[in-house]
């Protein structure tokens, strides 16, 4: 009986002690504040906050080791944001692919500085001291800003953000098919290919319908006039082409004629030069013949003295007669002159 009564008492005492310990420990645990992050997460809905004031943004991914190494440094930098008068934010590229496309992030981690809507890329190591000096010494002023179509607020980068967001949704859908539903990967690829083709055909049909709605057909008489005008223009162009070809042909014929005339003139000049040379040769030959004849006449008729000489010296007289010009030589010269004249006449023809 005593043992049965002590059992319930002991359990009651143990329960009371546990309740007392819990009551004393509860207020102490409630008094301890939970650790709060000073880094503001940025999404597609609140990213426009960086257009005002001064900001530093970090693009990261949970699976990136380099991003994890800079988390503590980035948190320390954010705690000193009030002293530096700067706001610090972070963007998860897995959850926000549209923002990664808007800033055209290609490497992780990526850091950006924003001052009143003007963005610059920070390419430092991501250490607290370097980040602090970058803000205090205003090193960002020496960095070229992202202006024009490269600016995250531009229309082109807005389109890039839409493409990245669509690709992110497709990636999530692919993971849903392959991981959650257990569908093979090639079936998912086939589905996306077919969906792309169907979507392209649908968009083409929409464009055709829009063009038909806004296109106003011309009346028949206006269309006929336009056709006639087009035909007349084509005929005019053809006539111009024919005229140009005829002009080219005429110019070529004139050039050929001029070249022929020049060749004939050159031939005539050469013929005149040949005639002059032949005349000079004839004159020289005639002068030589005249000289020989004059020398023969100057010797005179043979007298008595010559007769006696011939009798005394018959050998010398025979040598003198052989030295006189023979009429056969003159005939040869005349024949050569005649042949040259005939050759010249043939060249002239």
UniProtKB/TrEMBL annotation:
Give the compositionally biased regions (Basic and acidic residues).
Answer: 224-240, 335-349
Q: Domain Thioredoxin spans what residues?
A: 52-135
Span list, region Disordered: 224-349
Composition bias type Acidic residues, residue spans: 242-284
| Main subcellular location | endoplasmic reticulum
Bilayer-crossing residues are 189-216
Alphabetized, the UniProt keywords read: Disulfide bond, Electron transport, Endoplasmic reticulum, Membrane, Phosphoprotein, Redox-active center, Signal, Transmembrane, Transmembrane helix, Transport
Report which superkingdom the organism of origin falls in.
Eukaryota
Entry's Gene Ontology molecular function annotations? disulfide oxidoreductase activity
Question: Where is it located?
Answer: Endoplasmic reticulum membrane
| Leader peptide range in chain numbering | 1-22
Q: Know the name of this protein?
A: Thioredoxin related transmembrane protein 4
User: To which species is this protein native?
Assistant: Macaca mulatta (Rhesus macaque)
Its ancestry begins with: Eukaryota, Metazoa, Chordata, Craniata, Vertebrata
Question: Which gene underlies this protein?
Answer: TMX4
